[in-house]
Amino acid sequence: MPHTRPTYRKGIAGQDLRSWDPWVHARTVVQSDHRVIHDSRGFSLAVSGSLANAASNVLMAKVPAGTFMHWRFGSIGVDDTPFNVDLHEGVTVSADGTPITSYCNNRISKATSDVSLFSGPTITDTGTLLIPEIVRGSGASPVGQPHAGLIDQLGAEWIFTNDNITLTITNNSGATAGYTGRFFWYEIDSNYTEDL
Description:
By secondary structure, this protein is mainly beta. The chain is built from two helices and 15 strands. The chain has helices at 13-18, 33-38, and strands at residues 20-21, 26-27, 42-51, 56-63, 67-78, 83-89, 92-95, 98-100, 103-104, 116-119, 122-125, 128-135, 158-160, 163-171, 177-189. A hairpin with a 4-residue loop joins strand 1 (20-21) and strand 2 (26-27).
């Protein structure tokens, strides 16, 4: 699928052009994820659901060759604890599962992600475990309110290309419990170079 966003400019001559924001018609000097959002290269996925005890929801990202997916942020909120959240790379599947949609964080843009997302793939090899996390409760909750946990540790940056990545959310609380998740990444393609 061709890009629906402008290609990053190459070379030192393009450095000044790269700092020109076409959406607000101004020069920018933002040196963070905010910059890639303006360039229509930042994407998000939000998920929610309920899992029986010992059940899992597996999300898979298929990153094509030539696209560099920079995983930046993930958080999980749960109704009860513990939940396990595992991030794997190099995953082999026999079926992709159900397609799911991510959204460009620049809502003015019509850009779409080059990374294909799926729920419920059929996994034949789990690949390499990068992040094993346990979402634990945040302490006593008010009467009538669910326990909650949050993982900020998934915020470490990972860069992937030409790979299958899975995020497995597993309920180990002993009862059916709900969860929500928010994930952010940005994508740079092979046309991007940065001269130092």
